[in-house]
Amino acid sequence: MKIRILLVEDDTSLGFIISDQLKSDGYHVTLCLDGAEGFKRFNEEHFHLCIFDVMMPKKDGFILASDIRKINTEIPILFLTAKSNDADKVQGFKSGGDDYLTKPFNVEELELRVAALLRRVNITLESKDESKYQIGEYTFDTVNFNLKHPFFEKNLTNKEAQILKILCKFMNQVVARDIVLTGVWGQDDYFVGRSLDVFITKLRKYLKEDENIQIANIHGIGFKLEVQD
């Protein structure tokens, strides 16, 4: 199994250099050029480690890390930044970062820090299987976008599956509306907000075969996929 790294760096040249080096080391690398795209890809795929630039358009590295920590508390996050003062480093660690590499840096140091972070979480590389979720009487196959109940089966669209997967990660917990919006659409505005409401209505319809399941609206915050035992 290849270790999968999410690299978010808005400097295209530097991003390609880092990506090529990590690929030559045997890692699978996904490169994104802004924080919003990075968060969207994080919700679409499974990664073992994140490398984020700090100063980026749409969503900076600190905000991106903070949003990711809301849905994944374990994945290692390494910041790359030209900022070197203590206040910025403190902010980076508070936002959920595990390590900090100041630009300019040499490739060897980056490789060593990546290897060290992966060693710390070696046990989690055998990560829990997120390919299937049990939702009451339903089985949700996140790979094939299939939702199955003894009396009902539905092949979901890509966005329906992404939304349901996020809700499953927070099962019986509140998930903020902006997390769903930026995780699925990469943005949070009025029009995609209306689209989200339409998709939530569809998911409620698909899940109606089990009366112990509901997707509750939490006013002013977001949604909660409630599954009673």
Task: Please provide a written account of the structure.
This protein is an alpha/beta fold and 229 residues long. The protein has two domains: 4-125, Rossmann fold, CATH 3.40.50; 142-227, Orthogonal Bundle (Arc Repressor Mutant, subunit A), CATH 1.10.10.10. 40% of the residues lie in helices and 24% in strands. It is built from eight helices and twelve strands. The longest helix has 17 residues, at 190-206. The model has no long low-confidence stretch (mean pLDDT 88).
Ends: how far apart? 35 Å
Q: Please describe the biggest sheet, giving its number of strands, its sense, and whether it closes into a barrel.
A: 5 strands, parallel
Helix content: 40-55%
Helix count?
Answer: 8
Mean pLDDT, to the nearest integer, reads: 88
Q: What is the string of SSEs from the N terminus onward?
A: EHEHEHEHEHEEEEHEHHEE
The Cα radius of gyration reads: 19 Å
Total number of beta strands: 12
CATH topology of the largest domain: Rossmann fold
Low-confidence stretches: none
Q: Report the portion of residues in β strands.
A: 15-25%
Strand order of the largest sheet: 2-1-3-4-5
Q: How many structural units, i.e. domains? A: 2
Q: From the coordinates shown, what is the CATH architecture of the largest domain? A: 3-Layer(aba) Sandwich
Shape: elongated
Q: What is the CATH top level name of the largest domain?
A: Alpha Beta
Structural class: alpha/beta
CATH superfamily of the largest domain: Response regulator
